[in-house]
Amino acid sequence: MTTDLGAQNLTALLDSARQDYSELAGRGLKLDLTRGKPAADQLDLADELLTLPGSKTHKAADGTDTRNYGGLNGLLELRQIFAGLLQVPVGQLLAAGNSSLELMHDAFVQALLGQVPGAQSRWADQGPIKFLAPVPGYDRHFSICERFGIEMIPVPMTETGPDMDVVTRLVAEDASIKGIWCIPKYSNPTGTVYSDETVRQLAEMSTAAPDFRIFWDNAYSVHHLTDDRVEIADLLGLATAAGNADRVFVFGSTSKITFAGAGVGFFGASEANIKWWLAGLSKRSIGPDKVNQLRHATFLGSAEGVLAHMEKHRALIGPKFEATLRILNEQLGGTGLATWTEPQGGYFITLEVPEGTASDIVARAAEIGVVLTPAGATHPLGQDPTDSIIRVAPTFPTQTDLEAAVLALTTCVKLVGYEQKIKQQ
Ligand code: PMP
Q: Which long-range contacts (CB under 8 A, 24 or more apart) does 328-334 make?
């Protein structure tokens, strides 16, 4: 009796989702929820950069002519602004080109073809090597490993970071595991903030590999969405205190602070790692774009200046996150068809749908003109074994387009979800 009623109910729910879907199909939507890009109004916030440093103001604080070659470490005044924000002593923080992803790619190339401090040989000469990949994670991280044939071992994310029972066990027993990807604050795509205990364990754990590296991609260190400016524990400081200073590579950038195509990337590490990095870098470059670094230092002014600037971003994107969460709640709350993260910062919301439905939902959305990040992108090799994770990136569309896209997405979740429930009965 109950089952019959349930079945009738489900059929009615599916019919209603089908109706909504065909109504949406008729609208000729053209909406995009794929990449975590800043919207144009966010970029406008930094437009003053286009007039900086200004003619006749090309000198750095120490008198360096920023227009000329040299200064591999990057401008001191900019490194001083970001040292505290990225939790790296200023002497161990380099300011580089326009992208931290490039620095991560470079780090692999240097470790494969050079020899990181503590290594017995180059990674390329060590036979097959592996990396730990917390999932869901960032597809561009995984693509770097994929490109170099580095096997990735997925590690489940928990609410406090990667599952450290799994991490500590694997790294202790397998010397071919050379490192782990980490996005410690407002993680892409779950919004997870690593707990102090997770950071401490990462700093102190025993690793079978003497040349183990934590790729600490602090891409969202200042990207708060609430009044609570979340702080995480200082990995480099804790690792140094534990005698493991060399295991940490810190990355960051101003991509989602100023201009995503014309910002500044940062690399921080132990003194030995920095010496090693600069030796390799000196073969690759005669110096970074110091004019860009000078204009960033002038525009941002101080760490407080960075945080004040981020408040302006929050005013623009906060309502987009709120609207997304509101619609998810209104449309999917209580349906049992999805759960989602409620990030306190960063750029993404992760939507978890019933196993085996994510790719179908993404495909149905595409059919009605709503493009989502491909299902599976949050996992190594683009393969989510549960086919249940969808990454939602609310920042780039206008508020109106975003709301229409999220509503359409929830319709697809209902359509596919109810279809599956009926099949399973
Ligand atoms: N790391 C993470 C976690 C990101 O989400 C992004 C941008 N989507 C990047 C790095 C890219 O940073 P950059 O622009 O500095 O290369």
A: 328/406, 328/410, 331/407, 331/410, 331/411, 331/413, 331/414, 332/410, 332/413, 332/414
